[in-house]
Amino acid sequence: MTVPRQAVHVDSPTERRNPRTADLDLLSTLDLLRSINAEDRLVPDAVAAALPALATAVDLAAEALRTGHRVHYVGAGTSGRMATADAAELAPTYNAPPDWFVVHHAGGATALRSAVEDAEDDADAGGAALARSARPGDFVLGLTASGRTPYVLGALRAAGALGARTGLVFSNPHAVGLSDIDVLIEVDTGPEVVAGSTRMKAGTAQKLVLTAFSTAVMVKLGRTYSNLMVSMRATNAKLRGRTLRILREATGADMHECAEALDEARGDLKVALVHLLSGVDTEQAAEALAAADGHVRKALMTVRATV
Fold first, then answer.
1. Which residues does residue 251 pair with via DSSP β-bridges, in sequence order?
2. Which residues are annotated as catalytic?
């Protein structure tokens, strides 16, 4: 005899029918796509309303990394897959150390490719994952459209009990039991085009939040100069070309000068940049950057004050 699994009713706008898309299956292909696109255009405004809370999360995460701690992402299904992709892109883009961002995905690596039944319902598994990995001073960011995913909330509570700071990105204004989470980032995206399909607007909102969050953290930690990715790893021909272009755009020097400076700096774009902008040699540029925790503008202020 098969034992029926427990059913849970989730009171969330994402689960409700969207009156604007009730005739979805009657539309032409173009009108169907227009309907989806019209709903997608609502997402940025929902994210904008959550920016003050997101700013708090960014500051907590930057402080954690600045003081030798880590940032954790926790999610299930679409949320976990997006978190995994976001973390994976930080090393090549900003040369972020591999242990800065840690992802905990319900169901593990297998769930990145296909659904793992009931993994998101296991609060104990989420708690155990963070109990093994989180430390006091870390920042843990959970993602769940419903605001109730047991794996995610179990992880956040375990992390909080250890002394980590916690945040939650969610799309359900009716979510309850979240008072023990430090930062609540509510992005109310309303009913989905297809009721309950949170990989749509709620997932898009999570993508926007994650990209903004991690980018802002990297900027706060000096991994950019102006709007240029001066900390990136040049691991292929395209990125080596981008390195030279960034150096040229930031300094006004010609390509030959940029290539020479980069050679003198042993491939370190930041060192070459400070060298070209200030006129100090690459050794002094490297020392100034080390004293400024890698912030190019701070290093430039230091060397210019001594020249």
1. none
2. 89, 120
